[in-house]
UniProtKB/TrEMBL annotation:
Pfam families referenced in this protein's UniProt entry, alphabetically: TAL_FSA
Pathway(s) the chain acts in: Carbohydrate degradation; pentose phosphate pathway; D-glyceraldehyde 3-phosphate and beta-D-fructose 6-phosphate from D-ribose 5-phosphate and D-xylulose 5-phosphate (non-oxidative stage): step 2/3
Protein name listed in UniProt: transaldolase
Enzyme Commission identifier(s): 2.2.1.2
Organism the protein comes from: Zingiber officinale (Ginger)
Lineage start: Eukaryota, Viridiplantae, Streptophyta, Embryophyta, Tracheophyta
Family from the record: Belongs to the transaldolase family. Type 1 subfamily.
GO CC terms, sorted: cytoplasm
CDD domains, sorted: Transaldolase_TalAB
Biological processes per GO annotation: carbohydrate metabolic process; pentose-phosphate shunt
GO molecular function annotation: transaldolase activity
Entry superkingdom: Eukaryota
């Protein structure tokens, strides 16, 4: 189970949503029942979870995808399974759109991560399928890995008014390039960066943070937040892989935080005055961003060459591991679809 806190700077309030493998995003009880779900993500891992559960409207959405006529006519088995996969993502995504007031992010096939035009083509295919189900593009994000090709795809898609969600950000060059590209959401995995730093060395960006007594994951989130707000980029920032409540408190003020249930439950033990239980002290704010100092090296206009030369070993290794995980999950769901196709009861 994953939880997220979405902060609304103008209202100084927050909302919390809950990911459950059988129904996407729903209410959480008992301590947080007054916080409604706000957003959702549909991914290969979510589809795998849905397929392992008893009948739900989401499992029905997958079975309907496996009966799609346009997929039947594809002679190539890999193309047919890819068609089923896309249909399943969109059918489940459409159900989630009806379940939450905010945006639904749809995973883009990680096997395309190093081909800008293939990413754009896939997003347009998914968007067309959503359009057939009368889902507004304004309710959608498309989740793209933060390779240089993925960032460039994000830039071109955003120019067309298609909202993108860049994930697997583990370095400032990735984050800054994503902001310059105009990505709607940038996702940083705070805890994974810390985990890498504990077991490896040789990354200049991480070593610089450590020398300053900073946690490298939190430092990247803070720097990216300040960069976005100081220079007026439109991107919203999401922190993921939050390991403890100290991480959460350090990130208050960021646009989105994804955190495990156990961390949110621990918050109730951190306060004594019920009236102040959710009156968190904001750590990140546009005002403080204005006085944050960046080096000339950090303020370059990123291109593929400067990006490639600036990415350190931490980002390279973590990005590769993230992509491998996504690709494996996609293959697993396609293999599963191959075994159960055609579906029963359709």
């Amino acid at each position: 189970m994953l939880f997220a806190i979405s902060f609304h700077p103008l209202e100084r309030s927050s909302s919390i949503f809950h990911r459950s493998s059988d129904v996407g995003w729903q209410w959480f009880i008992p301590y947080w029942h007054w916080f409604p779900p706000t957003a959702a993500t549909v991914s290969s891992s979510l589809l795998l979870g849905i397929c392992s559960l008893p009948d739900t409207k989401f499992k029905s959405a997958i079975e309907t995808a496996l009966a799609a006529n346009e997929c039947f006519g594809l002679e190539d088995s890999s193309e047919r399974l890819s068609c089923f996969f896309d249909r399943a993502l969109v059918n489940v995504g459409a159900e989630l759109v009806r379940s939450v007031p905010g945006r639904v992010s749809t995973e883009v096939d990680a096997r395309l991560a190093y081909d800008t035009q293939d990413i754009i083509h896939k997003v347009n295919q998914l968007l067309k399928l959503y359009n057939e189900l009368e889902v507004s593009p304004q309710r959608l994000l498309f989740k793209i890995p933060s390779t240089w090709q993925g960032i460039e795809a994000s830039r071109l898609l955003e120019l067309e008014g298609i909202q993108t969600h860049l994930t697997f950000v583990y370095s400032f060059p990735q984050a800054a390039a994503a902001a310059q590209a105009g990505a709607s959401v940038i996702q940083i995995f705070v805890g994974r960066i810390r985990d890498w730093a504990r077991n490896h060395s040789g990354d200049r960006e991480i070593e610089s943070s450590s020398k300053n007594g900073e946690d490298p994951g939190l430092a990247l989130a803070e720097k990216t937040y300040n960069y976005i707000h100081k220079y007026g980029y439109k991107s919203k920032l999401m922190a993921a892989a939050v390991r403890n409540k100290q991480d959460l408190f350090s990130l208050l003020g960021i646009d989105y935080i994804i955190a495990p249930l156990k961390i949110l439950e621990s918050l109730k033990e951190s306060v004594t005055d019920p009236e102040e239980r959710y009156s968190y002290v904001r750590r990140l704010a546009p005002g403080s961003a204005s006085v944050y100092n960046f080096t000339e090296e950090e303020l370059v206009k990123w291109d593929q060459r400067s990006f490639a030369s600036a990415i350190g070993p931490a980002a390279e290794e973590l990005l590769a591991a993230g992509l491998e995980g996504y690709v494996n999950q996609t293959r697993r769901i396609e293999e599963l679809f191959g075994k159960i196709w055609p579906p029963p009861n359709v």
